[in-house]
Design goal:
Blueprint (H helix, E strand, L loop, with lengths): L1 H5 L1 H5 L4 E3 L2 E3 L3 E2 L7 E2 L7 E4 L1 H7 L4 H5 L5 E4 L8 E4 L14 E4 L2 E2 L17 E8 L12 E7 L9 E7 L4 E10 L4 E12 L9 E13 L5 E14 L6 H10 L13 E17 L2 E17 L4 E22 L2 E24 L2 E3 L7 E4 L4 E23 L5 E24 L12 E26 L4 E12 L3 H10 L7 E13 L3 E21 L2 E22 L4 E16 L1 E2 L3 E2 L11 E11 L2 E10 L2 E2 L7 E2 L2 E13 L2 E8 L7 E6 L5 E5 L4 E9 L1
Parallel strand pairs: 8-11
Antiparallel strand pairs: 1-2, 3-4, 5-10, 6-7, 8-9, 10-11, 12-13, 12-41, 13-14, 14-15, 15-16, 16-17, 17-18, 18-19, 19-20, 20-23, 21-22, 23-24, 24-25, 25-26, 26-27, 27-28, 28-29, 29-30, 30-33, 31-32, 33-34, 34-37, 35-36, 37-38, 38-41, 39-40
């Protein structure tokens, strides 16, 4: 029993099965439908990043894990956990963090009720596999139309993952990780994981990153094969956020590979956080019913200087519970599974404050704009606020096989999300730069305010998969979901007098083909996603406000495949074609954007990779290309994107020892990860890292 449970998670994400000098990739999904089945039998587009790929890439942040995944746009301008993450256009509106995408770790939601996710307290050194489910309609996702990212960490019952890992690299980068696990007896298991990462990122100003993380896991195996697991983790993350650049400054970066002394006034942006996270879950089978209750809690605080204001919040708590049961039964004389559950989550922030910047210089002359901040020291109290976001819902899914070759999933999820915000604005920033109210750069705010909004969200789905042969499945699905605006978007629109936002409705139609053979595999998907009242962002200088676009249509094609010449050598590729357009959109109430393409999303995006393993030597090379895209909703100008940004890994393994060199952006391309243009025609560039390298040593025990 001990052996079976200790390898349970690894079996669910088995990487390779060798046969006659060929191998077959046969990854299993245990999360997409909450029913374990092969990925080719899941009736939606799905990607799995397994443990071998995670180790080969030496993944430190989520962008490195998903930057070659079809249908996913992800980059990190700060070379840290702060990533811009988009799945099929969802998440585009986010100014920071991740929106419209549900992130789950070991079955526990990491995403707040308003769809906001922080990756700073995810220790990627503890992650065993990552599953990406694309599109709306999953019973896992509440208030998230983009899809689901499921992080599977190393199981407390798996004693085969203990290691010491040390790494050192360019620009002051370093990595240390220790995992120790032990079976105290046949019932009790513990595991400790500790990580520290640091990166000076000295190729540009204000970009130092450091993170310290430690977690303790406990597991108990009952005699009746029921399991109990708990995890307690602590994270301290200090992350400086670099400024964007003007066109002239970007051209200088293209020549030198350095970003220094930009013209941006906001030189001291950062997000420094401390997070304590706890979750516990129990699983027990009684007859044909398996019970899976979960409870989780985290408390966090952060110091977050941003544009014009310094956020200081030290009393934030998130509580959640999920009660799930699985009922095995017969339907059409075949095995079937009914999954049902109720869930609730609440995010409470008390006495959250905003301060003015204390130290800065101002522009000479009539205007009184801040020219540059000199430090992140707090000035006067500008705002204080209490907020509560509450989500509760229920889900139901029936999975059955009408014939021996077909599988059907029918599901429905209903959630209600409520935002309750009360605050007082004492001071606001003087964006006009003209003398007003005697306050100079800051002047009198609007006083007390409150937001009380409730949205009901529906997520139905019908999916069918049919086996054309033993190796090939075809599938079709139709799914829908609602997306509520976030509390920060509601607050921003209140300040800018832009009106109350409606919830979004997304309907996705998809067909696909999946093949798993001895020597090759591929996934293809064609989809059309019709969105009504999509919340879009309009940028005006340093401010961003939001409004509902009448209709948006997103059409796309995705392909990913791999060919294994033998057990040593493989080639792979992914390709994404995106045609995402506004069908009805009157920006700012006056500018007709109907027929325009969504900004930032390239029409063409592709990646290639090759792996070679022989007698302990291992290597991986991958390259990725983003095509051109429009910078703004008006489609006035394009950024050419980038071509063939290439990463290389070389390594050697012998018994318990491993040494590995990873070089990212090996040809030292100097490019922008994102370019945007506001309605005043001002262009800003956020650049990606130049060539970086890290050498790591790992001892497994």
């Amino acid at each position: 029993m001990k052996f079976r449970y200790s390898l349970y998670l690894l079996a669910c994400f088995s990487a390779t099965t060798y046969a006659n000098d060929s191998y077959e990739l046969d990854k299993l999904s245990v999360t997409a439908t909450k029913v374990q089945r092969a990925t080719k039998e899941v009736s939606q587009s799905l990607a799995v990043v397994d443990s071998k790929e995670i180790d080969d890439k030496n993944i430190i942040n989520i962008s490195e894990a998903l930057n070659t995944t079809a249908g996913v746009n992800v980059e990190s301008s700060s070379n840290s956990s702060s990533a811009k993450l988009i799945i099929r256009g969802a998440g585009l509106k986010a100014r920071f963090g991740v929106r419209e995408i549900m992130v789950i770790k070991d079955g526990v939601p990491m995403t707040d009720p308003d769809s906001f996710t922080r990756f700073d307290f995810i220790d990627m050194q503890d992650v065993e596999a990552i599953e990406v489910q694309k599109g709306p309609g999953s019973i896992l996702s509440s208030n998230a139309t983009g899809g689901v990212i499921q992080l599977i960490t190393k199981s407390v019952f798996d004693e085969g993952k203990d290691r010491i890992k040390l790494g050192f690299g360019t620009y002051g980068s370093s990595l240390a990780n220790l995992r120790v696990s032990k079976a105290l007896d046949e019932h009790n298991y513990i595991a400790i994981n500790a990580s520290k990462t640091k990166n000076d990122n000295s190729w540009r100003d204000n970009n130092e990153v450091e993170s310290k993380q430690v977690s303790l896991k406990y597991g108990y195996l009952f005699d009746d094969e029921a399991t109990f697991e708990s995890e307690l983790s602590y994270t301290k993350s200090d992350m400086q956020l670099p400024t964007s650049m003007t066109k002239d400054e970007f051209e200088e970066f293209e020549k030198s590979g350095k970003q220094e002394d930009t013209s941006s006034p906001w030189q001291h942006n950062a997000r420094n956080s401390e997070i304590l996270f706890f979750n516990t879950k129990y699983e027990k089978k009684v007859g044909n019913i398996t019970y899976k209750p979960r409870f989780y809690f985290n408390t966090w605080e952060h110091f977050h200087p941003v544009t014009a204001m310094i956020n200081d919040s030290d009393d934030n708590s998130v509580y959640g519970i999920d009660l799930e049961l699985n009922y095995e039964h017969k339907l059409f004389s075949n095995s079937a599974m009914l999954v049902a559950g109720v869930t609730a989550k609440q995010d409470v922030s008390k006495n959250s404050k905003k301060y003015t910047y204390k130290d800065y210089t101002t522009t000479a002359g009539i205007k009184v704009d801040i020219d540059k901040t000199l430090s992140d020291a707090k000035g006067e109290l500008a705002n204080k606020e209490d907020s509560t976001s509450t989500l509760y819902g229920a889900y139901l899914q029936e999975s059955f096989a009408p014939t021996n070759k077909s599988l059907v999933d029918i599901s429905l999820r209903v959630d209600k999300v409520k935002f309750d915000v009360d605050g007082t604005e004492y001071l606001k920033y003087n964006w006009s730069g003209l003398p007003f109210g005697g306050k100079g750069t800051y002047y009198e705010g609007d006083g007390e305010y409150s937001i009380d909004e409730t949205y009901t969200l529906f997520s139905p789905k019908l999916g069918v998969s049919y086996a054309l042969s033993a190796n090939t499945n075809i599938y079709a699905s139709i799914a829908s979901a609602n997306q509520a605006p976030t509390d920060s978007e509601l607050k921003t629109n209140r300040v800018e007098n832009k009106g109350v936002l409606k919830k979004t409705r997304s309907i996705n139609y998809e067909i696909g083909l999946k093949n798993r053979s001895k020597d090759y595999l591929f996934d293809m998907a064609i989809f059309q996603n019709d969105v009504k009242d999509e919340v879009t962002a309009t940028k005006e200088g340093y401010t961003t406000y939001y409004q509902n676009a009448g209709k948006t249509q997103k059409r796309g094609f995705e392909f990913s495949g791999q060919y294994n010449f033998n057990k040593n050598f493989s080639l792979g590729a992914s390709y994404t074609y995106s045609k995402f357009k506004f069908k009805e959109f009157l920006e700012d109430g006056t500018q007709n954007r109907s027929g325009n393409y969504l900004p930032y999303i390239p029409k063409n995006q592709y990646a290639l990779f090759a792996t070679f393993n022989y007698l302990g030597f291992k290597s991986r090379v991958q390259t990725r290309t983003w095509g051109s895209y429009y910078m703004d909703n008006a489609n006035t100008q394009k950024y050419e994107g980038y071509k063939f940004v290439t990463d290389l890994m070389l390594g050697y393994e012998r018994k318990n020892h491993s040494i590995q060199l990873n070089i990212n952006n090996i040809f030292d391309k100097h490019y922008a990860m994102s370019v945007s243009k506001d309605i005043n025609s001002d262009i800003t560039y956020s650049v990606a890292a130049p060539r970086t390298a890290m050498l790591t040593y790992t001892y497994k025990f």
